């Protein structure tokens, strides 16, 4: 075990890293954050922020010399960085697991070759790959192999012609062409696995997206017990096959009552934010526990929960003018927990925070969360009208 007050390292300074720093601090650890952004959310609350590139040799040498273990908060950290650090200190997840999860071609190939259920796909490395793709893949979704997230680097294509145009728009980057499934819903499993292979799964989330970005997570997911158990079993087998240590998220499509693996995230996940308020342990504390070899907790949910993302759009009125949202509309909602990520600049589509409504009954929590979101947007519209058209005296 790595015990407090040891110093841990986090590669990445976004909101997931920020929550990890807070959880590790509560356990008694110090945390260093490596992130090239001088104003990164996690870096601002870390014991030390190394403002450098992820492959900066001097920064990596400092981490290796002063930190007891290292983890990551997003999959696009170079796998080579984790491999380098793993020669000096424990590094979880492994470079090999991250390399698979950070490349859709490697990820889809891994799933198919290991017998995990996934939708039909074709690998596209050039336009010949589009011509050779099975006609049954249309309509489909073309996704770049690297650095696509929150709907970025993806295009819905109904024909080869549209696929070629999208491929060119993506500057001929390697991609996968996936058959578009008719969805019943989308769900995700967030689990923690330790070095001995013990696994603890969080309650399954049902996820709704808007413009390719996670909008709402509903917990527990409104699926059958049998389907939920199948999702947990598949996610556990994926983690075992990867030799995974840490927190892993597996996203599933549910189509025609069957489940298909969509993608994996080698880190805590947006759909697991609810664990901060509705479970006996958060995904971030589990990440610290797995990294340090501490016993994993049984993540029992003590409440139903509905998480709603707060995008930068909330900071602008209906005419695009910047304004501060009227948070009193949210803070007045019973059982609503509001979380901000410490980002200085709000931009449309940027994740700035989230709120979670917890309760004894899922239907009540869902109704309250959706009403709270509507109140927030309505207050923005009303404020614009009030400021633009003040009542004459």
Question: How would you characterize this protein structure?
Answer:
- With 393 residues, the protein is of the alpha+beta class.
- The chain has three domains: 7-91, Rossmann fold; 120-179, 2-Layer Sandwich (Dna Ligase, domain 1); 185-386, ATP-grasp fold, B domain (D-amino Acid Aminotransferase, Chain A, domain 1, 2-Layer Sandwich), CATH 3.30.470.
- The protein is built from 13 helices and 17 strands.
- Strands 9, 10, 11, 12, 13, 14, 15, 16 and 17 form a nine-stranded antiparallel sheet that branches. The protein has a four-stranded parallel sheet with strand order 3-2-1-4, with helices on both faces.
- Helix 1 (15-27) crosses helix 11 and helix 4 (79-86) packs antiparallel against helix 5.
- The protein is globular and about 60 Å long.
- Residues 381-393 have low confidence and may be disordered.
Output the radius of gyration: 21 Å
Annotation field: number of helices: 13
Run of helices and strands = EHEHEHEHHHEHEEHEEEEEHEEHHEHEEH
Strand content of the residues, in percent? Answer: 25-35%
Approximate shape: globular
Tell me the domain tally: 3
State the CATH architecture of the largest domain: 2-Layer Sandwich
Largest sheet composition? 9 strands, antiparallel
The strand count comes to 17
> Which spans of ≥5 residues are poorly predicted at pLDDT below 50?
381-393
* Name of the CATH superfamily of the largest domain: ATP-grasp fold, B domain
Text of the CATH class of the largest domain: Alpha Beta
Helix content: 25-40%
């Amino acid at each position: 075990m790595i015990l407090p007050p040891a110093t841990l390292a986090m590669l990445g300074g976004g909101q997931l890293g920020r929550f990890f720093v807070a959880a590790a601090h509560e356990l008694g650890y110090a945390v260093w954050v490596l992130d090239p952004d001088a104003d990164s959310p996690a870096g601002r609350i870390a014991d030390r922020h190394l403002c450098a590139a992820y492959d900066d040799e001097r920064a990596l040498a400092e981490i290796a010399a002063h930190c007891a273990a290292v983890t990551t908060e997003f999959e696009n950290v170079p796998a080579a960085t984790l491999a380098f650090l793993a020669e000096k200190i424990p590094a979880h997840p492994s470079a090999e697991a991250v390399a698979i999860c950070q490349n859709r071609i490697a990820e889809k190939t891994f799933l198919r070759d290991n017998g995990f259920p996934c939708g039909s796909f074709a690998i596209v490395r050039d336009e010949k790959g589009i011509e050779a793709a099975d006609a049954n893949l249309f309509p489909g979704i073309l996704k770049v192999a690297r650095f696509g997230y929150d709907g970025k680097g993806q295009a819905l294509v109904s024909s080869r012609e549209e696929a070629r145009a999208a491929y060119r728009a993506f500057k001929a980057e390697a991609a996968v062409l996936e058959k578009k499934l008719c969805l019943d819903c989308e769900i995700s499993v967030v689990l923690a696995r330790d070095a001995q292979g013990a696994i603890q799964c969080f309650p399954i989330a049902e996820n709704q997206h808007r413009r390719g970005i996670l909008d709402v997570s509903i917990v527990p997911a409104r699926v059958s017990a049998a389907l939920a158990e199948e999702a947990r079993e598949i996610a556990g087998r994926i983690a075992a096959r990867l030799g995974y240590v840490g927190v892993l998220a597996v996203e599933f499509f549910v189509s025609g009552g069957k489940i298909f693996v969509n993608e994996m995230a080698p880190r805590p996940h947006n759909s697991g934010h609810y664990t901060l308020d509705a479970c006996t342990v958060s995904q971030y504390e589990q990440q610290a526990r797995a990294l340090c070899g501490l016993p994993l907790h049984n993540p029992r949910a003590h409440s139903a929960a509905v998480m709603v993302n707060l995008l930068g759009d909330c900071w602008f009125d209906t005419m695009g003018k910047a304004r501060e949202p009227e948070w009193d509309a949210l803070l007045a909602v019973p059982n609503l927990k509001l979380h901000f990520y410490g980002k200085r600049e709000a931009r449309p589509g940027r994740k700035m925070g989230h709120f979670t409504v917890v309760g004894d009954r899922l239907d009540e929590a869902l109704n309250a969360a959706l009403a709270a979101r509507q109140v927030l947007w309505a207050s923005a519209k009303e404020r614009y009208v009030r400021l633009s058209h003040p009542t004459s005296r």
